Amino acid sequence: MKLFLFTLLLISGITDSRSDQFAVVGSADSVFAFAGEDVLLPCSVKPNISVVDMKVEWFRLDQEYSVVHLYEDHVDRNTEQIQSYKGRTELNHQQLQTGNASLRLSAVKVSDEGRYKCFIQSKSGSDDATIDFKVEAVGNPPVITVDGFDRSGGLHLLCESEGWHPEPDLEWLDNKGVRLSSETTETQRNTDGFSVKHTVTVHQRDGKIHCRVKMKHHMLEALISSTSNMYLYRRTSVIVISVSVVLIVIAGILIAVAVYKYREHRRLQHENSRMKSEHRRLQHENSRMKSVINHLRKLMAVNVTLDADSAHRDLIVSEDGKQVKWGHTHNRKVKDQTVWNLGVARESAEWKSSISLSPENGFWTVSKRYEKYNASSDPLSLSMNPQRVGVFVDYKKGLVSFHDVKSMFHIYSYTGQFFIGKLYPFVCLWSLNSTPLIICDVTNEESE
């Protein structure tokens, strides 16, 4: 009987030990993205067990100071994060419940390319996976410059382009598509990518010369037309030496001005195109956010009242619990001055004047200080002065969002938060102005 019981305990212990085992899986192939895009670096555990209670760390293998993102004790801890990754990394806390610890990296840079490690550690074991990340960047259109003549009458041309990654190929082609040999080549690399310069000397009259810069998936091209007049000018300048000096100076100035105008025109075109694209994206995002917020605020609106018993002694709360104002007045006041904080707070949060109103301390708020707006310690740049602020909370998704009720303009959102316990409305008035802060119901907002 004793032997039988010992055997059962031994088998049970072996089974429990194996149930804690897991393997971290990344990607067998390299992950590719273009500069400026968002990318998801894959990482998960097999079997698909929850990693909410585990430590998840992403870091670079090719850098000494390498922390990219750290999740531990149910919160993101990025105080030691590489500076260039600040505000660009995110773990989906809901996906952690199914063993998915993939890292979202936004606004990809050329400097982000490298080898990453996803490390996951439980109380009884750990494992990791390595992900190879490649970045591609399409550079500026090539520019051809006339760089003078050689002794035999050949026309010197210079072609240059910058901002490519990985290193591109540059080639010269004549009007028949035949490749021309470059005489000099120059390649430089910086944090924004590669810049290339190639020169060639041509002797053909009345033809087109192409400069082509290409990578695996992209190609940009420029061309210049060579005319007999260019070479006629060269012969004349040799015969009439005194006149040639003046002509060369004038030609050089005209060419320099033309090249500068061309480059500036192309730069402005590129910048204008980028700004239009960004404007369309923001308009679409703003429209989508307005629609979602308008639907949710009607569907999930709750009746909020202020608790006079928990208010500061200098605050006066109305009988219906919908208004609060500063209780003291002074002879010297700043006209229409408004200084406030509003949002939600954790039930267990302790309010002291020395405590920062941040998610780490249990406060998710926006504030106004002398016409300047902030979310926690982050400054906000608003194009309007909100008179009514809507607060939307999705407890399960870890979302607290603020918007202007009248225009539906999105002010700020806290995303990927981890809530513990109850959340309560939070209002803090610092202004000497006696004008009350009023809580409005959704029905009242729509009628007004």
TrEMBL record:
Subcellular location: Membrane
SUPFAM superfamilies assigned to the protein according to its UniProt record, in alphabetical order: Concanavalin A-like lectins/glucanases, Immunoglobulin
GO biological process, one term: regulation of leukocyte cell-cell adhesion
Signal peptide as annotated in the record: 1-19
Keyword vocabulary terms for this entry: Disulfide bond, Glycoprotein, Immunoglobulin domain, Membrane, Signal, Transmembrane, Transmembrane helix
Annotated B30.2/SPRY domain residues: 260-446
Keyword hit for Transmembrane: yes
Membrane topology classification: Single-pass type I membrane protein
TM region(s), chain numbering: 238-260
Principal place of residence: membrane
Domain of life: Eukaryota
Residue ranges of every copy of the Ig-like domain listed in the record: 36-132, 141-225
Any Gene Ontology CC annotation: membrane
InterPro entries in alphabetical order: B30.2/SPRY, B30.2/SPRY_sf, BTN3A2-like_Ig-C, ConA-like_dom_sf, Ig-like_dom, Ig-like_dom_sf, Ig-like_fold, Ig_sub
Family assignment from sequence similarity: Belongs to the immunoglobulin superfamily. BTN/MOG family.
Name recorded for this polypeptide: Butyrophilin subfamily 1 member A1-like isoform X2
Gene that encodes it: LOC137490066
